[in-house]
Amino acid sequence: MCTVITKRMKDHPRIAKRDLKVYKAGYNNWDGIFYSAIRSYAYEKDVEHNTDFGFSYHSQVYDQVEKNYSDSIPERNRVYVTNGFHSFLTKCEDRVSSRESFALFIIPKGSKYYCNKVGNVVSDTIIFKNFL
User: Fold this and answer.
1) Distance between CA 108 and CA 127 in Å, rounded?
2) What is the pLDDT of residues 38-58, one digit of tens each?
3) DSSP symbol at 45
4) What span, in angstroms and rounded, lies between the C-alpha atoms of 29 and 99?
5) How far apart are CA 49 and CA 66, in angstroms?
6) Which residues neighbour 99 within 8 Å (Cβ) at sequence distance 6 or greater?
7) More confident of the two residues 21 and 118
8) Are 71 and 101 in contact (CB under 8 A)?
9) Distance separating alpha carbons of residues 85 and 22, to the nearest angstrom
10) Is 70's pLDDT higher than 80?
């Protein structure tokens, strides 16, 4: 999954002033671990995960809503966040496959994150809380 932001946003990530609730799409294999839909990353409950952001100026967008948003930004101003913990502000059922389910995650206070106009979020830190 890639989240599209503008070049201006890239240099100014937001800092979470409080814990933020977000949702990830993926799989519950009934082993207590949530597996992300795109890369099958394993998230154990209440464990903080950290990573660095990665960026690209050319990338594949898998989500039609995200693709439409991407197309609305002039190519010279488009940046794709290719690495980070991707999530949604809301449970957008129409943007995931019928085999996937949602889980509640927290972006902890003090984390860096990007949020675009279609509700896609990418953070440098995330914690899995509950299956939904």
Assistant:
1) 8
2) 888 999 999 999 999 999 887
3) B
4) 12
5) 25
6) 27
7) 21
8) no
9) 11
10) no
Between CA 121 and CA 69, with CA 103 as vertex, the angle to 5 degrees is 30
Cα gap 41→113, rounded to integer Å: 19
Cα atoms found within 13 Å of the Cα of residue 121, Cβ hemisphere only: 26
Fill in the amino acid letter for 48. E
- Residue 117 near residue 9, CB atoms below 8 Å: no
Residue 83 one-letter amino acid = N
| Spatial CB neighbours of 39, under 8 Å, sequence gap ≥ 6 | none
Distance CA 25, CA 104 (A): 9
Mean of the pLDDT values across residues 59-69? 65
